[in-house]
Amino acid sequence: MKPYVLVHGGGHGGWCYQRVARIIRSKGHEVYTPTLTGLGEREHLLSPAIDLDLHITDVVKGLEFEDLRDVILVGHSYGGMVISGVADRATSRIGHIVYLDAANPKNGQSLVDVAGPMMMAARSKGRVVNGIELVLYPGTDPMSFYGVTDPEQIEWMKPKLTPHPWKCFEQKLVLRNEPAMRAIPETHIVCTSTLPGRDVAALKASSQGRVWDIDTGHDLMISEPEAVADLLLRVASL
Fold this sequence. Notes:
Number of helices: 12
CATH superfamily: Alpha/Beta hydrolase fold, catalytic domain
CATH architecture: 3-Layer(aba) Sandwich
Largest sheet: 6 strands, parallel
Structural class: alpha/beta
CATH class: Alpha Beta
Order of helices and strands: EHEHEHEHHEEHHEHHEHEHH
Distance between the termini: 12 Å
Radius of gyration: 16 Å
């Protein structure tokens, strides 16, 4: 049995993986769903110091203190930036990387570089609070970006979404151990609707063809937890 570490995306927290984690645990695997500093139930720790590097450190420290090895490391959306940095800094602990409809950055890229128009649109609706520029403010209809349409799921999500420090999105990822990090097996699970905007050939080349899609919205771990869990369990058998 392999341990899973599921890293959430912008504006979310470990809470978003509740249903997926429950299914994977029922199959006997350990599952960790860390919440990044300043988000979710850790929103009280919001500070000007929060950036991509801090979020990478959040997860690396969790791996170290739990002494996790041969980890299946999963990142959703902005979490793709985070897990790329984690795999670079804790390479020996990672057995497989899974990008879950996630950013797949190159060395030196920020999330703004990867998804510029979308991120600038988010910034246009942000605000500065206590000297911190925050974006992804939960509104009356936060699902327009996250792609969740089920009313029950929407009501479950709304009180849990939190604004996200813009600094995380504009900081560039610096890979210190890229050759070893790129040698870790990877898989891409994406939403069918995002495939036309992706370089599928490049993704297949880096993952030995493992580009799997689910026909749902961006927050696929919420809208299709069974399908996501099934594919993540498939990764453990590779």
